[in-house]
From TrEMBL:
Residues 1-24 form the signal peptide. Keywords: Signal. The gene is malM. InterPro entries: MalM (IPR010794). Pfam families: MalM (PF07148). This is Maltose operon protein MalM.
Amino acid sequence: MKTKLLPLCLSALLCNIIPAVSYAASDTAVSDAVITNKTESDIKTSNAIAPTFSMSALQKLQWQPINAHDTQTIILNDASQQLNDGDIRGAIAAFALPANQGSLEIILNSLIKDKQVYSPNVLVLDEQLHPAAFYPSHYFRYQRPGIMSVDRLEGVLKLTPALGQQRIYLLIYTTRADLQASTQMVDPAKAYAQGIGNAVPNIPDPIARHTETGALTLKVKSERDTGNILIGQVFSTPAPKPVTIGATQVTTAPAASIPQSVAPTVKPVLNDTEQYFNDAIKRAISSGDIDKALKLLNEAERLGSPTARKTFIKMLKNKG
C-alpha cells in the first residue's frame, strides 16, 4: 500500500489538480430554536444575501481590537455604534481580529435576558474590507442554559486568514426581518424535569422577543481543525464573493468595490511564512493526512515559497 502512495500523490501534484479553496459545510446542527411571528423560512429568505456597503461607510466604523485567546462581553445599547442601512437596524458591533496567528475559532453568544435577545448576523471582511463570509441570523441557534451559561443564541465561526494580512474584521448587526421574529425558549421547570428523568410538566415555554439592543460574548481562540473558511486573497485578482454559511445553498452578493490605487498586492513570501508552511506540511504527512499536505503545498506555492515542494516530496519519500 505504501509503495502505491508515493506515485499517486506525486501524480496528483504534477497534474496540478488540487482545488484552490475548500469551503466549510453548511450548518446541519439540530437545535431547540423555534422562530415565531415570522417563520424561519421567511427569515432565511430575508437574510439570504450578504449586505453590501460602500468602502467609505466601512472605513468610518470604529473597529474594536480583540486578541486571540480572549473573551469579551459587549453591551449593545443606544450609545453603541448604529447602522441603519437598508434592512439593517439598531446597534452594531465591529471587531478587528488578528490575521497573522493562524486559524481562528470564534464563539459568538447573544444572551437572552428578561425575555429579550439580539438576533445577530455576522459579515466577515478581509484586511482590505472585502466581504469574505456571511453568517445569517438563523445560523445562531438557541441553546438551553447550563451550569455556567444562560439561555442564548450561539454560533461558531471557523476562519483561516490568508497569509500576508494583519487583521480581518467582523461586523455584527440585526435586521428588520429579525426584529419581527422571536425565539422560543425552554421553560426551566421542563429542562430540570428532563435532566433528572421526571415527567415533563405541561406548561408553555417562554418566548424571547428580538430587539435592537442586547448583550454579546465573543470568545476567540486559535485552532487547527480543517474545514475553515478562507478569509482574504493570495492573488491580486478581483475579490471573490462572500461565502454564505448555514444556508440551504450558497448565496452570494457582490463584494464592495475599492479604488485600484489601494488594491492589495502580493508580497514575497517571508521566511517565517515559508517555515510555517514547511512545518505544517511535515506534520500533515507525518500524521498521514496527505490531502491536507497537498493543500498546504498549493497555498505555499501561491505565496511564492521556493522550498515547499521540496519539503513535500522529501517527506513522502521518507514516509514511503
